[in-house]
Amino acid sequence: MRILILNGPNLNLLSHRDKHLYGGKDFNEILNDLQKSFPDFNFSNFQSNVEGELITKIQQASETFDGLIINPGGFAHTSVAIKDALELCKIPKVEVHLSNLAKREEFRQTLLTASSCDGYISGFKEVGYFLAVNAIVMLRSQI
Questions:
Q1: Neighbouring C-beta atoms of residue 23, cutoff 10 Å
Q2: CA distances from 75 to 6, 36, 59, 94, 140 (A)
Q3: Which residues of the chain have pLDDT under 50?
Q4: pTM of full prediction above 0.90
Q5: d(CA 99, CA 117)
C-alpha cells in the first residue's frame, strides 16, 4: 500500500515545539517508526509551510497513492482551498493533529479541512499517524 503523508506549517520544527502538546519525536523519527511497523507499505512524505504546495500534492495524490494522511497544521483552521482540494481527492483521507485540539484555544476548535476527510484523529501525538494508517487500511477494505 502506498500512503502519502502531508505535513503543513511548522511541522518541520516539530522537535522544537512543546513536547507536552506535540510529543517528543521529530517527523523523521515518526516516519522511521511507521516504516518499521508497516514494512510492506510505501510511505512518501512532504512538508511545506506553503499552502499552494500542499494543494498541488493533494491534487496529484489520487494518481499515485492508495491513501492520504494530512496534518495541515494551522491551515486546518483557515484554508478553504485545502478543504476544496481534499474534497476532490478520491482516495481514503485521514487528518491528524498531534495535540488534543479540544483542549486548546477557541480558534483551534474550527476545523475547515477535517470535514473533507474520512475522519480526523487528535490528541494522540505521534500515535495519531499509526492510527491513521490503520484507518486507511480499514477504509480501503470497504472499497
A1: 20
A2: 12, 29, 16, 15, 26
A3: none
A4: yes
A5: 18
